[in-house]
Amino acid sequence: MTILVTGGAGFIGSNFVLDWLAQSAEPVINLDALTYAGNRQNLVALDDDARHIFVHGDIGDFDRVAKLLAEHQPRAVLNFAAESHVDRSIHGPEDFIQTNIVGTFRLLEAVRAYHGQLPAAAKNAFRFLHVSTDEVYGSLGQADPAFRETHRYEPNSPYSASKAASDHLVRAYHHTYGLPVLTTNCSNNYGPYHFPEKLIPLVIHNALAGKPLPIYGDGQQIRDWLYVKDHCSAIRRVLEAGRLGETYNVGGWNEKANLEVVHTLCAILDELSPRADGQSYATQITFVTDRPGHDRRYAIDASKLERELGWKPAETFETGIRKTVQWYLDHQDWVANVTSGAYKQWVGQQYGAAA
Question: Annotated catalytic, 301?
């Protein structure tokens, strides 16, 4: 038995692969295009592990995917591959259209052809699990109930629109072709191996470097925060027992305003790695112009996942964020390697003088 993971060198994908092989003897075929956020260093612990087969390739390459499926005969395909950063999608939406929409379409086509020729027992057991985001649902008002799986799609950025399109394709391939699909829509992830363009790793990195901590607008944008290893456990559970054709929202039950998150990070850093001058890292907070179309609030109602499959997050925000800060303090060589060159240019473009 084998599974195929796409995007398995990225943030969530690499955490999933590492956790999977820590708990299972089942091999993983890991297909990743190694764009800027895909990093083989995330997987260095698996360099001598025969259960991990890394393949450099793109989900949009139908022939490459079809060959992998034919060669390895996986019982499941888990699609983590995506362009995932809203800010980058505003500056350059075409990459998001190509990867998230066209790439998902070509991946589905290859999987459909493979699934169609499987023997009956293998065909019935096969699963295609598509990993998506809560951003497809749009933005919530302060008093609105959290997103449920039945919430209508209202994407507000090129990124979320491209992910919404991919979700619709996955749904269509189930209803039209009978492909046995599962979809998960998660809230904001945080944890080890997170590329430092997103809020939490960016703040940790800038704080330790003595740079400003850029906060969009008034910093009161609210997100539900999910520790990445909890997300991985939820995906394993959905793959194991999820109902075919269903969507499961995955959240941490941790709604926090961005500014509160930054102050929490500063307080933990003040404790674990205090500044030489004795001042708080919070003095580095700098407010910058809000990004276009910035959604005000996301919140996930993960009660369906708990009710049907018995899943709940193991970490609170307080325990997960402390583990995350400690990981970055212990792995500053990893951060240094991923924040050279083009990363510096991008941060300067996005945040200007505040970077």
Answer: no
> Which of these is catalytic: 58, 83, 87, 134?
134
Domain boundaries, the chain: 3-193+227-252+294-314
Instruction: Tell me if 124 sits within 8 A of 62, measured CB to CB.
Output: no
CATH number of 3-193+227-252+294-314: 3.40.50.720
CA distance 355 to 347: 6
pLDDT at position 347 is: 47
- Told to judge if 49 belongs to the known catalytic residues of this protein, a careful annotator would answer no
Q: Cite the beta strand spans of 169-246 per DSSP E.
A: 181-186, 188-190, 213-216, 222-227
Element (H, E) at 348: helix 342-351
pLDDT digits (tens, 9 = 90+) for 176-190: 999 999 999 999 999
Residues of the chain with pLDDT under 50: 343-344, 346-347, 351, 353
Using DSSP's 3-state secondary structure scheme, residue 36 falls into coil
- Out of 58, 83, 137, 159, which one is annotated catalytic? 159
Q: Is 48 a catalytic residue?
A: no
The dihedrals phi and psi of 278, each to the nearest 5 degrees, come to 80, -5
